[in-house]
Structures are given as structure tokens and as C-alpha cells.
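Hypothesis: this fold can be encoded by more than one sequence.
Test: take the C-alpha cells below, design a sequence, compare later.
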């Protein structure tokens, strides 16, 4: 699937094999696992973003014309007709360039069009302002805050999480309205 500046490819492990530094990167780890604790290779295999069942899908994010992925999007089927996801862009040069918004929009559109998924949800560390902003930019609703949900094992800091969700009908209506406005 190609859209904007990047293409998305369903993958099993190709995009993650090239990113061994992910398991030691505190910002990536905090976003994916809500913990900055580095992972051993064995832990990364068991807990890492490699799909091990039909309930998980992994897409590599590759800039157009580039051979190497810059990140990945993991989707998890969870709950009644629902998916949640995590986007990790390890290449810092791409941070702040709306790649996460573009990737999420493409996958949300695809899942709403071709599956019975009715709801997409996400949970982010409250201090991760860029993730919260990307959810809001896509039209997700803030549906709750989990105060004092975790404690950072290294620093002892208390971590709050923010929950977002989006339903099929408003998304499709907004996309149709946007397409009419473009013509």
C-alpha cells in the first residue's frame, strides 16, 4: 500500500530484523511497552513487534524510493471488532513529518473499508505529546486518562496514560466529506 511519502508492506520480520537498536532505545521502548527497560534478544523475540498469531499484523514503513524501512506499525485485534496499534519510527530524521499520521490514516481507512472492524483505539504515555497530537489530528476522541498507571522502574517517575478511540462511521463520513471538498 503506497500513500504520500511512504509505503506500507505487510511483513513478518523483515523490518524488525534491521532494527536491533530498537530493543535498547528508551523512546521506542516507552512507546511500545510503556517501559524503558532494555530487552535481551530473547525477550525481544517473545515480546517484540513480530506477529506470532493471526491477532497481530505488522507493517513496515518505507519511504518511497528507499530500500530500508524507517519504522513499523503493529496492529492488534483486541475486543469486539476493535484494533489497537503502535507506530514506531526509529529514524529520527522522520520525526515531526506526519509519517505517523499518514500511516495511521492509511491503515484505518483500509481496515474500515475491507474488514468488520468498527473501532480503533490507542493508549499513550501522557508525556508523549506527539503521539497524543497524532491521534487528535486524525479525529480520535480522548476517552479517558489512567492516572498513576505505571511507575518508571529506572527513575521512579509516575506515568499516566491517555486513551483515545475512533469509530468507523465518523471516519468514513469525514473521508467522504473531505473527498467532496477536494473536487
Amino acid at each position: 500500500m503506497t500513500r504520500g511519502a511512504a509505503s506500507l508492506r505487510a511483513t513478518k520480520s523483515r523490518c524488525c530484523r534491521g532494527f536491533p537498536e530498537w530493543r535498547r532505545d528508551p523512546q521506542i521502548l516507552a512507546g511500545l511497552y510503556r517501559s524503558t527497560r532494555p530487552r535481551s534478544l530473547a525477550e525481544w523475540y517473545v515480546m517484540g513487534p513480530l506477529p506470532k498469531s493471526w491477532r497481530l499484523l505488522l507493517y513496515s514503513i518505507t519511504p518511497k524510493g528507499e530500500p530500508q524501512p524507517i519504522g513499523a506499525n503493529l496492529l492488534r485485534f483486541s475486543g469486539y471488532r476493535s484494533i489497537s496499534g503502535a507506530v514506531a519510527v526509529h529514524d529520527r530524521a522522520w520525526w515531526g513529518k506526519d509519517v505517523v499520521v499518514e500511516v495511521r490514516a492509511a491503515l484505518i481507512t483500509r481496515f474500515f473499508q475491507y474488514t468488520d472492524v468498527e473501532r480503533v483505539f490507542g493508549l499513550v504515555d501522557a508525556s508523549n505529546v506527539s503521539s497524543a497530537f497524532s491521534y487528535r489530528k486524525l479525529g480520535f476522541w480522548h476517552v479517558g486518562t489512567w492516572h498513576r498507571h505505571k511507575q518508571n522502574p529506572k527513575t521512579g517517575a509516575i506515568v499516566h496514560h491517555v486513551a483515545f478511540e475512533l469509530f468507523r462511521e465518523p471516519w468514513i463520513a469525514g473521508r467522504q466529506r473531505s473527498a467532496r471538498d477536494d473536487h
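The helical segments are 14-17, 26-33, 41-47, 99-114, 129-137, 168-182. The longest strand covers residues 141-151.
Hypothesis status: open.
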